[in-house]
Design brief:
Blueprint (H helix, E strand, L loop, with lengths): L17 E4 L2 E2 L4 H6 L8 H25 L4 E4 L1 H6 L1 H9 L3 E4 L12 H19 L5 E2 L10 H7 L4 E2 L9 E5 L2 E5 L9 H4 L1 E2 L4 E2 L5 H18 L2 E3 L4 H4 L2 H17 L2 E3 L2 H14 L6 E3 L17
Parallel strand pairs: 1-11, 1-12, 2-3, 3-4, 5-6, 6-8, 7-13
Antiparallel strand pairs: 7-8, 9-10
The structure holds zinc ion.
Zinc ion binds next to loops.
Length: 306
Amino acid sequence: MSLKLIDNPPPWPNGARCAVCFSFDMDVESLLHLNYQGSARRRIVTSSTMRYEPIRAIPRLVEIWRHFDVKQTVFVPGWCVETYAPSIELLVKNGHEIGHHGYLHEKINLLSRDHEAEVLGRGIEAIEKVTGKRPVGYRAPSYAFSENSLDLLIENGFTYDASLMGDDVPYILEGDKGSLVELPSDMTLDDWPQYVSMKEFGVQMPIRSPERAFEVFRAEFDAAFDHGGLWVSVWHPFISGRLSRAAEMVKFIEYMRSRGDVWIAPLAEIAAHVEQLRNSGAWTPRIDRLPYRDAEVPHLVPLPQN
Ligand code: ZN
């Protein structure tokens, strides 16, 4: 396509047309224990659905990625890292990156700064203990990035965040404490709206076939390929690692490969590439300064309460 829809795409390594990471959030039953303290242990069916992740989905995904010789990023809450350490070890042994995803999938924009800091610290500890490495990447559970998150991530040495949705290509998040790389995605690349029907979490989507879901994922990929963008899925092993969806993922990677010149890499590598471009002056990313506003926007007239 000759009309370019992205003004200033970054140069990707080796002239690749776009960058791709199949990033997954391995939540297992953290969400259940977070939302249903007191009754979580009695919700056996939901537990079994989510425990499909360590039992079936992670080994299956590792095998798929080994087949294609690609490395990915998996964001994991600290409690899941500790509870399902063998899955984490399997991922690490195969060269995949483990990113931070809270401790018990807390919605951090509901927490105080101190509690958010405590959750961040416990998650780092858990990942360090099991992988031997401090995480450099972060995705806020439930997209609940808070007004304190950027400062806390910078204070704790993170190099990138992958929670926000503000662009088609990487950009820089800047605050009072410094800056880091943002690797944005979008709900079009999240698997919950395509497949999830779980009463416990108040989400009952009409479940779509993998072919229909991949029409959406593929449209995003084709546009990223044509215009030099970034394609980052926000998928979950217990959802997209189910048999028919994993089979469709195999076909999709084959399709990506057939188009050629696609850079598939863990998010930490994509963030490091962006930093290197920025430091060398080879590319100037857009800067988003946080917070977007220092105060609430006043209402012109009082709104009726309901
Ligand atoms: Zn999650």
